[in-house]
Amino acid sequence: MARILLIGAGGVASVAAHKCVQNSDVFTEMMIASRTKSKCDDLKKKLSGQGTDITTAEIDADDVDALIELINDYKPDVVLNLALPYQDLTIMDACLATGVDYVDTANYEPLDTAKFEYKWQWAYRDRFKDAGLTALLGSGFDPGVTGVFCAYALKHHFDTIETIDILDCNAGDHGYPFATNFNPEINIREVTADGYYYENGEFHRVDPMSIKRTYDFPQIGEKDMYLLYHEELESLAINIPGVKRIRFFMTFSESYLTHLRCLENVGMTSIEPIEFNGTEIVPIQFLKALLPDPASLGPRTVGKTNIGCIFTGYKDGKPKTYYLYNVCDHQESYKEVGAQAVSYTTGVPAMIGAKMLVTDTWKGPGVFNIEEFDPDPFMDELNKIGLPWHESFDPDMVD
Ligand code: NDP
Questions:
Q1: Of all atoms in ligand 1, which is nearest to the CA of residue 141?
Q2: What are phi and psi of 15, to 5 degrees?
Q3: Minimum-distance ligand 1 atom for the alpha carbon of 63
């Protein structure tokens, strides 16, 4: 029925490719294209013969002309961008030039500034609308499922939502002293940035990792978590009418933070290029080369993730609290698709987002954040496709 072009062949792309093949009634044809073709070929080898016709290609997704040529050759119904946030705009440009819908999981970031802002991608709204095309932004878990959870809570449980706390807990243990669960460069840029939360119409800045809380996560137990800025705060502040406060917390172990502080203190997390032996290097990119490849963590990671949202607000004039969350087991994910839960919880919703577009369940045209669409079909797919959700009407609150 549909032909999908998947760009990238890392941890998240690998899960999405598995899930497309598991949904081969929808995704009858798939091209996996990435910078390193051998990774695409490895995936093809694993997934061939299961109903989806798979081809592979080498692509530099920074090169718009090369992307246009590839898309014109393959003629996909949708492009699922699972490369890095740096490639979002070039891939969106190529989609516009070739008339194809677009899906990603992380907002555009310029290489030289660690900013998490939608302004660059929102600037494409008129062009996508005029071209009759749809771009779905942030179809991972956070952003992604967390936005769908917000839309679902608003649709079914509240007349007005006053506060949203997004809690992202990864209680996985990979046995390394220090490693990141997804692309190290993107991960470290995110956690070393200033924290921000939204309250009463504006964003408030706090020093990185300066607000700490402990939370007793269902199926996991007590974990320390820290307030971070996360990109979905920007769109949710606009798309959830009347919301007064939105915060995002992520769990980190003391050991992870000690390593990170040390790396930061010696300049290894910097994104400013330096000259070394006549070659220009970016310290954080060099650090990435030293750290374990996130895709290699799968077999050794045990434990669970729990990501969800706690809402407070009013229904029929009465105050209400509501907690929606998913628990994902690292080893179960690995058994099913050969990847740990952080890649799994991103790759599954990425595939669902693409499925929403190719089945015309969600329609534009324009550029949309995920919470702007009807959450119900996406929530149904989560239950069917490996990320079942749970709800509680009496959660512990974050003080
Ligand atoms: P990886 O580093 O494992 O994979 C990235 C892939 O993109 C690699 O295959 C890489 O190629 C390829 N790539 C990088 N640059 C280019 C380029 N110029 N042209 C073509 N291919 C390129 O990352 P992850 O799989 O962990 O993450 C993928 C995306 O998912 C990221 O954008 C990340 O921010 C996002 N993410 C979103 C989450 C969410 O919940 N919303 C959570 C986790 C991740 P090569 O193999 O040659 O390096």
A1: 40
A2: -65, -45
A3: 18
| Helix segments in 157-198, DSSP class H | 184-191
- Which of 141, 287, 346, 370 should be mutated for ligand 1, with most atoms under 8 A from CB? 346
Mean pLDDT of the chain, nearest integer: 95
**Atom 7 of ligand 1 has which residue's CA nearest to it?**
83
Q: Which H helix or E strand runs over 321?
A: strand 318-329
Give the global pTM: 0.95
- Residue ranges of E strands in 36-182: 53-58, 78-81, 101-104, 134-137, 160-170
Contact yes or no for 57/388 (Cβ under 8 A):
no
Return the CA Rg of the chain.
20
Instruction: Give residue-wise pLDDT tens across range 58-109.
Output: 999 999 999 999 999 999 999 999 999 999 999 999 999 999 999 999 999 8
- Say how many Å lie between the CA of residue 182 and the centre of ligand 1: 8
Smallest Cα–Cα separation from 271: which of 263, 255, 60?
A: 263
Ligand 1 centroid, distance to 371 Cα (angstroms)? 23
**Ligand 1 pocket test, candidate residues 79, 84, 181, 370, most atoms within 8 A of CB:** 84
154 C-alpha to ligand 1 centroid (Å): 32
Show the CA angle centred on residue 82, arms to residues 234 and 230, nearest 5°.
20
pLDDT tens for each residue of 162-177: 999 999 999 999 999 9
Q: Which residues approach ligand 1 with their CB closer than 6 A? A: 8-13, 34-36, 39, 59-62, 82-85, 87, 105-106, 140-144, 182-183, 186, 294-295, 346
DSSP alpha helices (H): ranges in 57-173? 64-74, 88-98, 119-122, 125-130, 145-156
